[in-house]
Every structure is written in structure tokens, then in C-alpha cells.
Design brief:
The complex is a heterodimer of chains A (260) and B (338). With 260 residues, chain A is α/β, with parallel strands linked by helices. Chain A has one domain: HUPs (Rossmann fold, 3-Layer(aba) Sandwich), CATH 3.40.50.620. Helices cover 28% and strands 30% of the residues of chain A. Classes of the chains: A alpha/beta (260), B alpha/beta (338). The complex binds flavin-adenine dinucleotide.
């Protein structure tokens, strides 16, 4: 029985490879930064690919909404093993509010009748954690958040998800498909692209869809500004050579009686 | 009860897990009156669960607010869709200024779902609220705490998830002369598409981390599992130390998940927390902010962890930690004080 999965991925500023944030206007300076796949979405994609590996007749579509730069992230998803890459071309400049992204993704997904939609639990940059649940609300799908384990019953068209809670607890829930899950990091480390998929991803065309953004009724939340956090505590930075710093630290530890 | 408080209600939404108030809900309850005051409104609690009247009474008393219990057998464990529909119906009824949830992933889900239905703006992980002339400014951390974002919202109701401790300690000290009312409403049996099955609880095999006087903790700045020995070597300098890590390091498999410190991991409050290559995301801080002394070793002086730290060494930990150990050994061999 065919089963189709949509994974929603976001391109976020790449800070892991040494990029630093600069502020421009009310948001960051997007011209001085590289982009990569949101960490949480990479885990969502990995979860989808693991489901695909374990069964037959499962397709995985990877979708990203945003300006043209998101295409690199879509290619990365193809290289990891997604079957189809979809670019929802939106909003050439600036950011997409979660509700705006959710509405456009939901409108697109409705036409494709996916059995399962996965998103990351949140995005590393804006950290809202609400886009996935809003897509589910727009499509009236059952939804569970922060899944760390997914077990799918393809024939029974249902799934059981283990959803992480605080302090080492997890809730087990069952949802009928079609459903939406937001995926939390942890269970399977996202795979590296294979050579064959990388070659395929370079040649494969990315499907492009232009959503209708006119009837967007979602209430606005405006970013006034971003700022670097104030140095609130009086953190004392040790100065000097490496050896001097080590010795000062050891003196501190010793004076408190912590050292052996 | 809610009818005569129609003007200026702020709904404070808590949850129970298997009959017990969740930690986040307790904290939100403690903030309730100040939080509501910020909106010039009055706090009304909403508590989801099953058979929880006693819990609701005690929450209502400590938080000093009336509480409406939303009861359903399927709310014994957290149930975001039922919470969203139940709280959404209350919001229709009393037109609140704001609906506040504690900040966690399932509350974000409930908040987003209900905000979508009632067409209200939804802002999560709010850690400060200011009133301007005709709008509110909400502040929150973005980029893992590297930046702070200020957003403006002029629309009510707004649906928020609130970081712990935003307005605490804010429990009103006046003892109310009468206990606030508690009212139970049974939720309609409508949702059969989200079926809670139960709760798994991690069993920590030992309490070494919680008992340690010193916690040497590493994050993604560790660069790879091959450097894990540096942590053990550093821990070996102390009388009573244990090694822990951030989720970043545990997710990558460099350290076992059982050593993860933070909101979804373990909570420690040692005399010394040595944070090596940890950026200081709020979820990590949730598990170590009670540490008495925090020392950061990080290449980035702007890392959020430095805000919480008492001392910081700006350096590459893979180079600095070996030097630290070497100086320690030298000090011990010579028997002299540094
Ligand atoms: C629902 C939810 C729950 C979560 N629960 C937890 C939790 O319980 N615990 C937790 O820790 N996280 C948790 N997180 C994740 C959290 O948001 C962060 O992603 C995580 O804490 C980051 O880990 P990190 O600090 O190791 O990595 P990063 O944020 O990548 O930071 C690495 C740091 O190392 C520094 N660095 C890099 N190289 C070096 C070097 N050579 N020497 C010294 N410093 C260096 C960098 O400057 C940076 O500050 C949770 C997230 C969510 C959404």
C-alpha cells in the first residue's frame, strides 16, 4: 500500500561552520551569512528516510518555503535520499511568520493528500515551535509534538509516537493517519548524503510552486528589533597567557576546597 | 464565576500529569498574579486533567486565583488537542486579554492550535512583557540565546507560552480571606484522533551527577568523541566530580543520553559547574542554573553561558583543558600552591 510522507525543512543561518551574527535593521544581516538545513528538520527527514528504508512503496517529499536560497537546502534533502524536492517560492526578502508559512504549506499539502507530514520540533533561528502544529490545525490533522520515536503501522494507517517531555518523561500517543508529527532531535543522527544521491540531486529538477498569499488572514506579530543580550552578570573573564589562566582557575578551585 | 470577570481576564493554563501538577504549571501559577497585572487584568486558572479537584484547589490557593478544571478521561496525560479546544471555548466565552501556557513543546502545540482556531497571534518562549501606549512588547531569545528579539503585538487576545521564572517570585503574600473558587467542566468527548497511551519515565541508574560537588560538562564545542578523555581528566582533579553534557553533545553520541543536563535531561546544582563548549541555550540552563559557581570555557565571549557564569576562560577547550590538567599535576607534584 503506497504511503506518502512530506517533510518540511527550513533553511536557517549556518552558525556551526563559523558564521557570526550581525544585526541589520530589525533582524540579522542575512547577506553576510551562509545557510543550512535546520537541525530539527534534518532529524525529521532522517525519521522519514528510516521509515522509507524499512518498508516498500513509501515516498518522501521534502519541501521548503522561502526565497530562492532555500533551494540549496532542498538539494541537500535530495542528496540525503528524499524522492522529490519542492520549493514553495515565497517572499523574496525578509522572514516568513510561522502562521504565513503554515498556511501556504497547508494549502500545498492539501492538494497532495500526504499520509504523514513531519516537521522539526522548532527552528534553530526563530525558535517558535509552532509552525508544525499550525499546519496540522490548518489541515485539521491529528498532531503530536517533539516525537523522538515513531512506529508506523502502514497497513493499519496509524502510528504510535513517543513524545519527549521534561525531566526524562515521555508520553506515548497513537494517531490515525493522515497525521502530523514534529520531530525532536536525538534518536537517529541524520545521515550524510550518499554519492549516488548527491549526483542524482544535482540533476534532478526541483518542483516549484507559487502559493497564493493574498487571502492571508493571520494576525501580524512585528519584530521591533533584535539585540545582543546584555551582559547581566558580572562575569569575570580571565586574562593572560594560557598558563596564567589555568593557574588562576586552579587557585579558584583550590581556595574553595574542591581540588583533590 | 468567569462571567462576572469578563473584563480583563488573563487565562493561566496549567496541566496535570497522571493526577499531579506539572512543574511548569506550578511555576506559571506562581507567576499568575504578576503576569495578569502586566496586562492590567485578572488571572483565572485553567487546569486540565482527570479527577483533579484537590490538585486544582491547592493550585488555586497558592496562585491566589479562581480555577476552572477541564476534565476528561483522556486528559490524564497531557492532551494538547483537547486542551486547545477546551481553552479555545473558554476564550470565546470570556474574551481574555491573553492566554498563557507554560513553555514546553506540547504547550506550544496547544497554544498554536488554539491560536489558529481563534485567529489570535501566538508568541512562544516569552521571557519579558512590557506595556507601551497601545501595544505590548514581548521579549524572547532567538538563535539559542545569541540574540534577543522584541516583538510588538497590538491584538488581543494573544496566546503565549511563558518561560519559567519570568515574574517569580511573584506569589502574592497576602492570604486571601476566602479561597478562590474552583469549578469543574467536563470536556465533550470529541477527539478520538489523539489517543494518549501512557507515560514512560526514565530511570536514572545512579545519582552521581546530582550528588557531585563539581560537574564537568561538555557541549558541541568538544568537537568529537575523541576528546571525551579531556573531561575525565579534568574531573579527576576534583574530590567529588561527575561528567555531564548538553543535549548537543549527547545527540551526537559523544556522551550517553543519560548524562544530558537540562530541561529534558537531569537537573544539577553543584558547587561548581564547569561548562566546556556549551552555548547556554535556555533549555540547558534549566538544568544547571542553580549551580553555585559557574565557570565557562568557550571560544565565544558572547556565548549566552557567559551571562550566567561567574568566571570565563575564552579559549579552545581541546587546548585549554590539557594545559589545565598539566598545571594541576605540576602543582601536585611540586606540592606547592599555585
Ligand atoms: C524541547 C527542547 C528541549 C531541549 N532540552 C535540552 C536539554 O535538556 N539540555 C540541553 O543541553 N539542551 C536541550 N535542548 C537543546 C538546546 O536548545 C541546544 O540546542 C543545546 O543545548 C545546544 O548544545 P551545545 O551548547 O552543546 O551546542 P551549541 O549551541 O552548538 O554550542 C556549542 C558551543 O561551543 C563553543 N565552542 C565551539 N568550539 C569550541 C572549542 N573548541 N572550545 C570551546 N568552546 C567551543 C561555541 O562557541 C558554542 O558556544 C532542547 C531543545 C528543545 C527544543
Amino acid at each position: 500500500m503506497a504511503f506518502s510522507i512530506l517533510v518540511c525543512i527550513k533553511a536557517v543561518p549556518d552558525l556551526a561552520s563559523g558564521g557570526t551574527l550581525a544585526i541589520a535593521g530589525p533582524w540579522i544581516d542575512e547577506t553576510v551569512i551562509g545557510w543550512c538545513m535546520n537541525h530539527y528538520d534534518a532529524y525529521a527527514l532522517e525519521a522519514a528516510l528510516a521509515i522509507k528504508d524499512a518498508a516498500t512503496d513509501i515516498t518522501v517529499d521534502a519541501l521548503s518555503a522561502g526565497p530562492d536560497r532555500v533551494q540549496n537546502t532542498i538539494r541537500r534533502a535530495l542528496a540525503m535520499g528524499a524522492d522529490t524536492g519542492i520549493h514553495l517560492a515565497m517572499n523574496a526578502v525578509g522572514r516568513l511568520a510561522p502562521a504565513t508559512a503554515a498556511l501556504s504549506i497547508a494549502r500545498f499539502a492539501k492538494t497532495k493528500r500526504y499520509d504523514l507530514i513531519l516537521t522539526g520540533a522548532m527552528s534553530e533561528d526563530e525558535m517558535h515551535g509552532i509552525t508544525g502544529p499550525m499546519i496540522a490545525a490548518a489541515l485539521d490533522l491529528p498532531c503530536a509534538a517533539a516525537a523522538v520515536e515513531i512506529s508506523l503501522d502502514v497497513a493499519g494507517r496509524s502510528l504510535t509516537a513517543t513524545c519527549e517531555m521534561e525531566g526524562g518523561m515521555a508520553e506515548i500517543v497513537r494517531l490515525p493517519c493522515p497525521a502530523l508529527l514534529t520531530v525532536q532531535t536525538g534518536q537517529r543522527i541524520p545521515r550524510y548524503p550518499s554519492l549516488s544521491n548527491t549526483i542524482r540531486s544535482r540533476r534532478q529538477a526541483i518542483e516549484r510552486a507559487v502559493p497564493d498569499e493574498t487571502a492571508n488572514h493571520t494576525p501580524t506579530v512585528d519584530t521591533l528589533r533584535v539585540s545582543f543580550p546584555q551582559q547581566t552578570t558580572s562575569c569575570q573573564f580571565f586574562e593572560g597567557t594560557r598558563i596564567e589562566k589555568a593557574d588562576r582557575l586552579l587557585r579558584l578551585f583550590n581556595d574553595n576546597g574542591w581540588l583533590k | 464565576m468567569i462571567q462576572n470577570k469578563c473584563l480583563g481576564t488573563v487565562l493561566i493554563v496549567g496541566e496535570t500529569v497522571d493526577g499531579r501538577l506539572s512543574a511548569g504549571s506550578r511555576d506559571l501559577g506562581n507567576q499568575a498574579s504578576r503576569l495578569a497585572g502586566q496586562f492590567n487584568g485578572q488571572a483565572v486558572g485553567v487546569l486540565t486533567g482527570h479527577d483533579i479537584e484537590q490538585v486544582a484547589r491547592s493550585w488555586s490557593k497558592t496562585a491566589g486565583m479562581p480555577v476552572i478544571v477541564l476534565d476528561h478521561a483522556q486528559c490524564r496525560y497531557p492532551n494538547p488537542p483537547l486542551t486547545a479546544s477546551g481553552v479555545g471555548a473558554l476564550a470565546d466565552e470570556c474574551s481574555p486579554l491573553a492566554v498563557c501556557f507554560p513553555h514546553n513543546m506540547r504547550a506550544c502545540q496547544a497554544a498554536a492550535t488554539m491560536a489558529w482556531r481563534i485567529k489570535a497571534p501566538c508568541i512562544t518562549a516569552v521571557d519579558a512583557i512590557l506595556k507601551e501606549s497601545d501595544y505590548f512588547v514581548l521579549k524572547r531569545a532567538v538563535f539559542g540565546g545569541k540574540l534577543r528579539e522584541s516583538v510588538s503585538v497590538g491584538h488581543v487576545p494573544m496566546v503565549l507560552t511563558i518561560m519559567p521564572g519570568l515574574f517569580s517570585p511573584s506569589v502574592s503574600l497576602e492570604v486571601p480571606d476566602h479561597s478562590p473558587s474552583v469549578e469543574t467542566r467536563l470536556l465533550a468527548d470529541t477527539n478520538h484522533r489523539f489517543i494518549p497511551q501512557g507515560i514512560n519515565r526514565r530511570k536514572d541508574t545512579d545519582q552521581a551527577l546530582e550528588r557531585a560537588q563539581v560537574v564537568v560538562s561538555a557541549g558541541r564545542g568538544l568537537k568529537g568523541p575523541e576528546y571525551k578523555g579531556l573531561l575525565d581528566a579534568a574531573a579527576g582533579m576534583f574530590k567529588n566530580a561527575a561528567v555531564g553534557g548538553s543535549r548537543g553533545a549527547c545527540d551526537l553520541g559523544w556522551l550517553p543520553h543519560s548524562l544530558q543536563i537540562g530541561e529534558t535531561g537531569r537537573t544539577v546544582s553543584p558547587a561548581l559547574y564547569l561548562a566546556c563548549g556549551i552555548s547556554g541555550a535556555t533549555q540547558h540552563l534549566a538544568g544547571m542554573r542553580e549551580s553555585r559557581t559557574v565557570v565557562a570555557v568557550n571560544t565565544d565571549p558572547k556565548a549566552a553561558i557567559c551571562n550566567l557564569s561567574h568566571y570565563a576562560v575564552i579559549d579552545d577547550l581541546t587546548v585549554f583543558l590539557p594545559v589545565l590538567r598539566e598545571r594541576y599535576d605540576r602543582m601536585r607534584n611540586k606540592g606547592d600552591e599555585v
